[in-house]
Amino acid sequence: MDYRERREMRRNFRLRVGVSASSTHTLPDVGGPYLSTIRAGPRDRHLCFAIIGLSAMVFLACVPFVRVSLPESPAFVVAYNAISTCNDLTTSIILFGHFHLLRTRALLLLASGYLFASLISIVQLLTFPGAFAPSGLLGAGPQTALWLCIFWHGGFPLVVLIYALFHPNSRKISTAPLFAITAAVIGSIVAVLAFWFGATWGTGSTGFLPPLLDAGAFTPWQRVVNLADILLVVAAFILLSLRSPRTLLNLWLMAVMVYWFCDITLSSYLNGGRYDFGFYAGRIYGALAASLVLAVLVLENWRLYRRLAVAVSRLRERATELLQTNEALQGEIANRQRTEEDLRRAQAELGRVSRMSSMGELTSSLADEVNHPIGAIMINAETCLRWLSDKVPNVERARAIADRIVEDGSRASKTVGRIRQLFDQKAPLREAVDVDEVIREMAVLLGSEAARYGVSIRTEPMEKSCPVTGDRAQLKQVLMHLMINAFDAMREKDGARDLLIRSQWEGDSQVTVSVSDTGVGLPQVPPDQIFKAFFSTKPNSIGIGLSISRSIVEEHGGHLWAATKRSRGADFYFSLPIAPQSD
């Protein structure tokens, strides 16, 4: 698997994960997948309008029977208020949670409205005659429960109406969410207490609120105040329908307003009093209205969790694939590392073969380098023996000749040591190496070979010695290859045969060594062609010397190149990093 395939696989993985996390029928605008931010899709609208249509048909079917008397059931009232309280309170808690994340004024207001509805439902149940006491609790009078119901069924639509007036992109609340929620809760409690106080002490002969129930039948004032509640519900529905964009929350709030319209109309406007058919039917609509948004919230959470589960499953599958790919890549890396190690060993062996090949070409010269001191040792030894064999041994002359023997032996030993360094197979070292010293040693080692071809070796060291970081034996090998190539280039050339080896500073971080000859020059090929393996212009050469030399220099952090700017000859350069100064 190459780099492009791995990159394409990662791109497809990101795309698949992104698709799995998106909805097939709704698209979130901003703020994440919340009911108040998700646009209503066609399927959502069809479902909502179908429910509204079905509710309208049931409502019309109930209208003729609204005044039919049915048995009294305070338990039904308790169940209705309990359902409304629990569902409205749960809905408010969820909406407060959404507000904590989105911090919009509209959400805070709507959550407060649901909290107000749940709290006033509790108070209305406690004051309802016959639920817990014949006349109700909390100091309730005969009109208290009715007026609390009016405030309940008018207050919540009013909150929804104001909610619909807020722009979707209105400025968010800058205060801390917990502080805003606390203030909203306190405000809802204060509003419920105020309505309870007004419904309890504002009714009766001395109160400012007119009576709504007289002898078990509704008074005309009941129709008037409930008509006001109905108008609030209709106004809220219209504003919600005009609100854009139409989110899921707005869509289902429209359905809630339809249910509230049916509830108020059947249980408080068209019917004749408590416990008739209209009263029971309207309260069923009210319970459904309290449950509708909560059901949608739960359903949408289920959808989100389902999509999350699918996304997690796909992520696991992709993680498994990535793990398998990673294992394959690890195996490929291990194989590559083994291959590179084999290649390094092969290159080292090839370098050794190259050195042996080069030394084979210098056999006669190296033999002369060793034979000269050995021959001198033998002659001086014979002379020393003669001086010591006289009747009167000349010890002084014998001592002087013995000193010469020691010098010649040391010279032969150094020559053999230089040759052994070129064949040394130890691991490369990184130490401070004096380049000028290496140049001098190689000039001495190859001096006989230069004399054999009539080549004059001249060196120009730096004014101030500067060590480089490298391996002495490998640097000698590079210099030997360049010098032997220079000898071969000048072998068939007439005229002066000069070899100049110069070292010089190159900035503050490198030393450059140049090897210049007066030979035939470089072949007519691209400059880097001569450094490729197995390229050679000599019939008996395998063409690996310059290739190995460049790889050695590059491993040292330097560079090897060639140039020919003169009428004859060629110039080879290699640069090496300066060894760091020790404190």
Write the layout of secondary structure elements.
Layout (H helix, E strand, L loop, with lengths): L2 H18 L21 H21 L11 H29 L2 H23 L16 H22 L11 H25 L11 E2 L2 E2 L1 H23 L5 H22 L7 H85 L1 H27 L5 H28 L8 E4 H11 L1 H6 L3 E5 L6 E4 L1 H20 L6 E9 L3 E7 L28 H11 L3 E5 L7 E7 L6
Parallel strand pairs: 4-6
Antiparallel strand pairs: 1-2, 3-5, 6-7, 7-9, 8-9
Provide structural commentary.
The chain is α+β, with helices and mostly antiparallel strands and 583 residues long. The protein has two domains: 32-309, Rhopdopsin 7-helix transmembrane proteins (Up-down Bundle), CATH 1.20.1070; 361-577, Histidine kinase-like ATPase, C-terminal domain (Heat Shock Protein 90), CATH 3.30.565.10. Helix content is 64%, strand content 8%. The protein has 15 helices and nine strands. It has helices spanning 3-20, 42-62, 74-102, 105-127, 144-165, 177-201, 220-242, 248-269, 277-361, 363-389, 395-422, 435-445, 447-452, 472-491, 545-555, and strands at residues 213-214, 217-218, 431-434, 456-460, 467-470, 498-506, 510-516, 559-563, 571-577. The strands form three sheets. It has a five-stranded mixed beta sheet. It has a two-stranded antiparallel ribbon with strand order 1-2. A hairpin with a 3-residue loop joins strand 6 (498-506) and strand 7 (510-516). Helix 3 (74-102) runs parallel beside helix 9 (277-361), helix 7 runs antiparallel to helix 8 and helix 14 runs antiparallel to helix 15 (545-555). The protein is rod-shaped. The two termini are 49 Å apart.
